[in-house]
Known about the structure:
301 residues; 13-stranded mixed beta sheet; alpha+beta; 6 helices
Amino acid sequence: MTDEFDRYFNDFGRDLRQADATQAPRRPAARMRLAVVGVAAGLAVAAVIALLPGGGGLDPVARAQAALALDGKIVHYAYSVHTLVGPERKSDPPASMELWQATDPLRVRMATNSNGSVSEFAYADGVNSSYDPKRRTLNRMTNVPESAAEPGAQDQVAMIRKQLASGVLHEAGTATVRGRTVVRLVGREVVKTHGWWMSMPPKRMVMVQTTELQYDVDPKTYAPVRLRTIERHPPFGAPGPVITTFDFAFYETLPATAENLRQLRIQPAPGTTVTSQRMPPQPDPDSPPQIGRRPLHVSKK
Length: 301
């Protein structure tokens, strides 16, 4: 595992350097194409063109973006997750996820299996739901905006859509993944997070996190095959590097039939205990937290 990890780690850096060197002179044109594909009408046209032989002349980034377009159908996909952490290459327990999603309005359901622990999460009509089939408990939180939809925080495809639209990813040739030829896109994403140090008095902090990305797609459909991320310097002093691999089992779009729409909602077993609560007001991120003068938590009544 160590030799494989080191070889992949070195190849990843080489792909990034080569892609940066070859793509730099063409970035203005690439951004112009992405801007055209990024609008709603452009996405629909690109999705149709991507199905034609040769892709209608679209570059690999635009074709990958079109392949993930949300065009009124239900998106359904599944992937497994494997993570290696730190210089010792410690392996986290593998996990798998399956997701159904529709938009306008947003409805999404995710089923997860982490080391044998099965859970379901869903969002629809302003309600976040989490279901534990073993304990037969269903927890619902109401008054939730779409931006806080619980499954969305774990949706890797949504993250890929954002990176394709912003121009983070660019072409790096072809490769072989699980015995099949893929088109490889690579990039480097820098995210700044603003927060507060819990000191007296609280102090503003800015955390900068850099993630290297490797996204492999099918050369014909441009559907996702594998996503790999590297965090060389994880936040809060965590050991690095952290390399995470998302292997897609399939990616498909389904018509919005009554049966397929049922997949967007949790179907709890008979006898499930249901609890509900309203989402509390969220604190203003620009205001310092109250420390000392007010309690940091509210006691149960």
